[in-house]
């Protein structure tokens, strides 16, 4: 791989730098995306995954569209929206709206979620890795109704270590017309345990003819992003959980890929201020009561890995008003880095 790596092309869309922000349920809403954009470095941002069946129900019952589409109509592009379900026509109804009314940059299909509510109860997400023909039908239908907006797919290596079929699935995804494939380097049964298998991700590239391969899993530093491009046959990378409390990680990774000095971690006081800005955005959208409760999990992410994080989490998990939130942050947000072990 030459450095810096070339821009990633998804259909006619150019992603530069080739660093993507993963869609994460419950986290990657408009407030979080706004914070990431302030720091820069992410070539493509994504919403939380949207339940297509729920979207259709809301549409048919004149209800407000899902909170997970908050901000999508107005915010900067490029932007991807990820959707899930197991019925091609349901997915097509939503994909058509996203592509032609919301005018999103990419419609992504979730074939990777391992959560029981999505897999066992709804037979969607990573459950569909055992049904390549159904996957093909969903992708091809979405490609048809979304054109010229590109449709992409995100998968895992397989349903379990005993049933890894990502090579077969990769060919199915490309032949159905998808414009890119993202692979998380674990199986669904692994959930988030163990290490992502980047060797296995890299091997998938030989099974693709024309579409780019995006690797995902365990990218928690600029150095690991550089190593992914250096050591593995991928066209792009996707950063997930590591960015939730470190939205500046994309800017650090982009600098490293350019060969520029990597920006240092913000000071703890600066990180606290970023978190407070994030809190205000959430409260502006959802109101103080709901916004404060929603912010608890984000606040825990910002404190993760710091000295006193557990103490802070214990207190912030109980807040329900702005006054309580600011008080806990003032008194308990970590003021020193985690000790080196």
Q: What would you say this structure looks like, in words?
A:
The protein is α/β, with parallel strands linked by helices and 341 residues long. It has 2 domains: 8-258, Alpha-Beta Barrel (TIM Barrel); 268-337, Non-ribosomal Peptide Synthetase Peptidyl Carrier Protein, Chain A (Orthogonal Bundle). The chain has helices at residues 30-39, 52-60, 88-100, 116-119, 132-146, 166-175, 198-203, 222-231, 249-258, 268-286, 288-303, 309-316, 322-332; strands at residues 8-10, 13-15, 19-21, 45-46, 50-51, 79-84, 106-111, 151-156, 181-184, 213-216, 236-239, 306-307, 336-337. Strands 3, 4, 5, 6, 7, 8, 9, 10 and 11 form a 9-stranded parallel sheet that branches. The chain starts with 7 loop residues before the first strand and ends with a strand. This is tRNA-dihydrouridine synthase. It comes from Rubripirellula lacrimiformis. It is an enzyme of class 1 (oxidoreductase).
Question: What labels would you give this structure?
Answer:
341 residues; TIM Barrel; Non-ribosomal Peptide Synthetase Peptidyl Carrier Protein, Chain A; 2 domains; nine-stranded parallel β-sheet; two-stranded antiparallel ribbon
């Amino acid at each position: 791989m030459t450095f810096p790596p070339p821009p990633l092309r998804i259909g006619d869309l150019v992603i530069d730098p080739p660093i993507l922000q993963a869609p994460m349920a419950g986290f990657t809403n408009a407030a979080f995306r706004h914070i990431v954009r302030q720091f820069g470095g992410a070539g493509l941002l994504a919403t939380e995954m949207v339940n297509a069946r729920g979207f259709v129900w809301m549409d048919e019952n004149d209800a407000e569209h899902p909170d997970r589409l908050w901000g999508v109509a107005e915010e900067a592009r490029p932007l991807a929206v990820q959707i899930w379900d197991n019925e091609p026509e349901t997915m097509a109804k939503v994909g058509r709206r996203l592509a032609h009314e919301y005018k999103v940059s990419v419609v992504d299909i979730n074939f990777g979620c391992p959560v029981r509510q999505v897999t066992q109860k709804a037979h969607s997400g990573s459950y569909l890795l055992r049904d390549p023909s159904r996957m093909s039908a969903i992708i091809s239908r979405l490609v048809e109704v979304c054109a010229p907006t590109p449709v992409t797919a995100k998968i895992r290596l397989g349903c379990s270590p005993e049933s890894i079929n990502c090579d077969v699935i990769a060919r199915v995804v490309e032949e159905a017309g998808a414009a890119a494939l993202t692979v998380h380097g674990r199986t669904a049964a692994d959930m988030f345990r163990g290490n992502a298998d980047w060797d296995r991700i890299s091997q998938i590239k030989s099974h693709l003819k024309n579409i780019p391969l995006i690797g995902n899993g365990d990218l928690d530093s600029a150095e690991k992003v550089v190593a992914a491009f250096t050591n593995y046959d991928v066209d792009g990378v996707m950063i997930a959980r590591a960015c939730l409390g470190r939205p500046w990680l994309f800017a650090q990774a982009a600098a490293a890929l350019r060969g520029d000095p990597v920006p240092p971690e913000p000071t703890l006081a600066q990180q606290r201020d970023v978190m407070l800005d994030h809190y205000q955005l959430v409260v502006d959208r959802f109101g103080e009561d709901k916004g404060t409760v929603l912010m608890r999990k984000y606040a825990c992410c910002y404190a993760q890995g710091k000295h006193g994080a557990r103490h802070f989490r214990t207190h912030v998990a109980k807040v329900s008003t702005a006054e309580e939130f600011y008080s806990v942050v003032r008194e308990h947000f970590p003021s020193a880095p985690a000790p080196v072990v």
